[in-house]
Amino acid sequence: MKKNSSNTIRGIVVALKANFFIVDIQYENTYEDCVEQFSEKNRFLCTRRSKLDYQGLFIDVGDIVFVESIDFKNKRAVISQVEPRKSFLKRPAVANVTLIAICISVDDPSFDSEQTSRFLIAAESAKIKPLIVLTKIDLIQKNDLNVYINKLKLWGYDSVPVSIKNSSGIDLLLNRFRQTRLTVLSGPSGVGKTSLINYLIPSLSLPTSAVSKKLRRGINTTRHVELFPIGKSSLLADTPGFNRPEIISNQFDFADLFPEFRSQLINSKCKFRNCLHRDEPGCLIDKDFERYSFYRTYLEEIINSRHPYQGDSV
What we know:
five-stranded mixed beta barrel, six-stranded mixed beta sheet, about 25% helix, 13 strands, 8 helices, alpha/beta, about 325 residues
């Protein structure tokens, strides 16, 4: 659906400001063709029709909307309709995400396998493709970097090593981002997400902060989610850093969030359909892989959670 009526225009929510929505209007009403036209002059400060509240429709960054009552002079409008989402990332809340780029530094702060796994599982549980971006690679030797790259391959994930100090890997990463519609940069505080966006889009000059020497972790400088154009038809979202994503999953489907399990379960089935791949009789899973201990820990966390899994939310 491109256009609802002659009095409405299609756009995308690029930021939330208090009780208002910043909507980037694409004047030709085709999201696929007009992202390249994103600019400050196309951004309107919008409210929403009360009927959307009655319908129980939430609006988040990334949502495709229709606006009406458009005041072109003062750049104001009212959201009257929201298109169905193709995907939704709960934390941070971003709609229609096509790629999650998980930024993990190899040093300052150092690489953390358990923390990285939590971010990967968060992406998997949202059914959104993840990509690992290894940052600050100028701080370690090449042999040490290869250890991390090979580790991630064994986990079942691609990685792109980058450095904004010497531009290593930047062109490759930029090409990956431009091959997808909406990429979310996520990861712990201090790994260089905002610095990377500033490097990729120099005109932004977003505020950054150094890693705390006392805590050896980052200080969060991004306070909200905002979308930025990064190519003809691609958007990039900076998100607030957080160090411990919550694991939310059905315990019986949890193993499917690990590529190490998926690759085994394609050709073999355990004796019992509700096998949790712990110590059940007839379990056919080879448990000799690095992240199996994480799986056991996370599974117990899910089973003992005070907030049981309620199913996917869109």
